[in-house]
Amino acid sequence: MVNPQKSIRLALLAGLAVVPLAQAGDELLDGINAYREALADGNPSELVAAEGEELWKMPRGPKNASLEQCDLGLGPGVIKGASAQLPRFFKDTGKVQDLETRLMTCMETLQGIDPQAVVKAGWLKGEKEKMAALVAYVVTASNGHKIRIDMRPPEMKKMYEMGKLAFYYRTGPMDFSCATCHGDQGKRIRMQELPDLRTQAGAASGWGSWPAYRVSNGQFWTMQHRLNDCFRQQRTAEPIYGSDATIALSVYLAATANGGKVVTPGIKR
Amino acid sequence: MKKISTLAFCLFAMPAAWAGSEDTYAEFKAMMDRSFKTTGIAAKHRMYQLDFQKACSQDKQPAKAEMARIEAEQLKTIRYPADGKYFGNWKEGEKIAVSGRGLTWTDKTPHDNGGGCYNCHQMSHHEVSYGTIGPSLLEYGKLRGNADDVVRYTWGKIYNAKAFNACSNMPRNGDAEILTEQQIKDLMAFLFDPASPVNKK
């Protein structure tokens, strides 16, 4: 299977060089924003999504089946708008699941693929690379939809509460929590603007624009990947892929973003 | 790793002002416990909170008295330089301020860290890529002078920011062993030396 991530990377880096690096702050930000707009016409995620579509339809795993009957919450096989309503509570598993853990359930039940094969793989390697492609395909079908998280099930309410506690949980050698970097209006780290994820507007732009293609390293990142890297910057221990803490945080962010617009796959610095 | 001994191992105790039910909080702690793993130098025990971290883990700050209690406790951790010399080399200090590396699970050793000061502070005349989580420190020495109390306060703030603001977003660089005494001296020189780009255009 081709790896479009690597092939587009060079072209994009060439484009980045146009942005003068040693300019005054605001100009630099303007440059990056302009660059983002330029890219928005031809989203480099399209290639990853195309690969994901192929994977969705391809018989795979011990059961040699495709994912076409996968139920992401709107019925078997329905992907249009599905990720705009995730995470959600699923009766069949008895769990609140985000897109990635739900896809793992489908891979297991339909294809016989062991979820640990995804959990244990390195980022953008093996089953995680395939997961990223599937995610790119699925979220493209929610682009432009409204974030609509069903908060009625008590399981969702509980996860929201847990996610909020996790958001403010300060720990580790630097005493950081998510709120240290995302708990105030209009802050940045170096040149990177930080959304205030406590507010509807901030969460809508921060949650609603992921998963995303990252221009700086030419990689498509899922939301689990994004959260993992924020925990790395937070200097905590490493969150286990798909663990409840990551789902709870996702519920907190998505529910706070409710009503906002999905722009996925996003394009990031 | 002297800090482990002072870790609050009360996994199931709730923060004082926590309004939810005790069951929910116990469930939360259990969730955190099963959701993280040791990777490289980032050990699982990093998920267990110190008492003050717990007190500062809400959307509102703790009550005034609690803040004062934490600050008094944190103040006791500050070690001033044994040789009485507060200033090192500002050029080294600048490198430490620029570097945001260290203490993640992709770092090889816990002993070779940057200060990451530019992540949060404007500092010098020539570095335009700075964060805004903390206040601007531009012309720090020029604006404040170098009287003993200013020098001691600044050392203390870098060593343990929580001694002056219980729930400060700024790390405890000395107390948490992020930076060495020598590195803090170099940063002090960077902030105060008239020749450093913090003070000189």
What key phrases describe this protein's structure?
heterodimer; A: 269 residues; mainly alpha; Cytochrome Bc1 Complex, Chain D, domain 2; 3 domains; 3-stranded mixed β-sheet; two-stranded antiparallel ribbon; 8 strands; 49% helix; disordered N terminus; B: 201 residues; 8 helices; globular
What's the topology here?
The complex is a heterodimer of chains A (269) and B (201).
Chain A: H1 4-16, H2 25-41, H3 45-57, E1 88-90, E2 95-97, H4 99-111, H5 115-120, H6 126-140, H7 154-167, H8 178-182, E3 187-189, E4 192-194, H9 200-208, E5 212-214, E6 219-221, H10 223-234, E7 238-239, H11 244-257, E8 266-268
Parallel strand pairs in A: 5-8
Antiparallel strand pairs in A: 1-2, 3-4, 5-6
Helix pairs in contact in A: 3-6, 7-11, 9-11
Chain B: H1 22-35, E1 36-37, H2 51-55, H3 64-75, H4 90-98, H5 117-120, H6 140-144, H7 148-159, H8 181-192
Molecular structure report:
- The complex is a heterodimer of chains A (about 270) and B (about 200).
- Chain A has helices at about 5-15, 25-40, 45-55, 100-110, 115-120, 125-140, 155-165, 180, 200-210, 225-235, 245-255, and strands at about 90, 95, 185-190, 190-195, 210-215, 220, 240, 265-269.
- Chain A has about 270 residues and is mainly alpha-helical.
- Chain A folds into three domains: about 5-40, no CATH class; about 45-140, Cytochrome Bc1 Complex, Chain D, domain 2 (Orthogonal Bundle), CATH 1.10.760; about 155-269, Cytochrome c-like domain (Cytochrome Bc1 Complex, Chain D, domain 2, Orthogonal Bundle), CATH 1.10.760.
- Chain A is globular, with a radius of gyration of 18 Å.
- Chain A starts with a helix and ends with a strand.
- Residues about 1-25 of chain A have low confidence and may be disordered.
- Chain B is mainly α.
- Chain B folds into two domains: about 1-60, no CATH class; about 90-190, Cytochrome c-like domain (Cytochrome Bc1 Complex, Chain D, domain 2).
- Helices cover about 35% and strands about 0% of the residues of chain B.
- Chain B has eight helices and one strand.
- Chain B has helices spanning about 20-35, 50-55, 65-75, 90-100, 115-120, 140-145, 150-160, 180-190; one strand at about 35.
- In chain B, helix 4 (about 90-100) packs across helix 8.
- The longest helix of chain B is centred in the N-terminal third of the chain and has 14 residues, at about 20-35.
- Chain B is globular, with a radius of gyration of 18 Å.
- Chain B starts with about 20 loop residues before the first helix and ends in a 9-residue tail after the last helix.
- Chains A and B meet through helix 7, helix 8, strand 3, strand 7 and helix 11 of A and helix 1, strand 1 and helix 5 of B.
- Strand 7 (about 240) of chain A pairs antiparallel with strand 1 of chain B, so a sheet runs across the interface.
- Chain A: This is SoxAX cytochrome complex subunit A.
- Chain A: Heterodimer of SoxA and SoxX.
- Chain A: GO terms for molecular function: electron transfer activity; heme binding; metal ion binding; oxidoreductase activity, acting on a sulfur group of donors, cytochrome as acceptor; transferase activity.
